[in-house]
Amino acid sequence: MGRAFEFRKGRKMKRWSAMAKTFTRIGKDIVMAVKEGGPNPDANSRLRAVIQNAKAANMPKDNVERAIKNASNKDTANYKEILFEGYAPHGIAILIETASDNNNRTVANIRSYFNKCNGTMGTQGSVEFMFDHTCNFRIPKGNLDPEELELELIDFGAEEVFEDEDGILIYAPFGSFGTIQKELENRGLEILSSGFERIPQITKELTEGQIADVEKLIEKIEEDDDVMNVYHTMKEE
Q1: In what order do the strands lie in the sheet with 92-100?
Q2: Is the dihedral of CA 34, 36, 38, 44 positive or negative?
Q3: Angle 167-173-176 from CA coordinates, rounded to 5°
Q4: Residue 184 region, left (φ>0) first, then alpha (ψ -120 to 50), else beta?
Q5: With contact defined as beta carbons under 8 Å apart, do 119 and 94 qualify?
Q6: C-alpha–C-alpha distance, residues 99 and 82, integer Å
Q7: Domain named TACO1/YebC-like N-terminal: which ranges (predicted)?
């Protein structure tokens, strides 16, 4: 198995996979998708993907429809995606994806978390290069053979295809998202969920005490309403 498999296995047990903020994050994704490509999912592949993720997260259909309607209102504030970079204690690189309607607030909050937890907020590009930006899709297992599917999807950008208890996962570079989404839809394969992740190229093993120091910062960051995802280079079991 490759890095995507190990990364997914490590994160699977972590708290943010079931954070209470899931619906809030999906709501922001809907706003950004609608503002970018309109409210019709048939003509808006990004919105189509967000709706799939909402379904996978058991978000009520009424909530999704209401979010789309609200996002279509020109008075609804749009969210800007901002990437923050820095270092946690013990040399662990931290990459933070946010979606904010107030950049000054978000910058001030993120900086305060680093300061309070003995971290260092970095400049643009200071740690982003340490992570591979990937896209992923989850589809039902059905009668599919992951190895055969991987061979068939290589030409569309797929780099790693593997099975877990929830279906088949497909990983590819960030730029291959649209191509793979279209191919899966053309094949009539149901997309259970999809998204983007940043996989660390190298991870660092820490002691229990050091892990606690890093997790203190991560927890502070994750509690912020503007934060969508947090990635790091700490080795996870």
Answers
A1: 120-121, 80-88, 92-100, 227-232
A2: negative
A3: 85
A4: alpha
A5: yes
A6: 6
A7: 4-73
Would you say residue 14 has pLDDT above 70? no
Q: Which two tokens stand for residue 186?
A: 């053309």
CA angle 44, 50, 28 (to 5 degrees): 105
DSSP per residue, 63-85: HHHHHHHHHHSTTSPP-EEEEEE
pLDDT of residue 11: 67
Give the chain as a DSSP string: --HHHHHHHHHHTSGGGG-TTHHHHHHHHHHHHHHHH-S-GGG-HHHHHHHHHHHHTT--HHHHHHHHHHHHSTTSPP-EEEEEEEEEGGGEEEEEEEEES-HHHHHHHHHHHHHHTT-EE--TTSSGGGEEEEEEEEE--TT--HHHHHHHHGGGT--EEEEETTEEEEEEEGGGHHHHHHHHHHTT----EEEEEEEESS-B---HHHHHHHHHHHHHHHTSTTEEEEEE-B---
User: Beta partners for 167?
Assistant: 164
Nearest to 25 by CA among 222, 237, 205, 180: 222
CA separation for the pair 45, 213 (Å, rounded) = 40
Q: What is the mean pLDDT of the chain?
A: 92
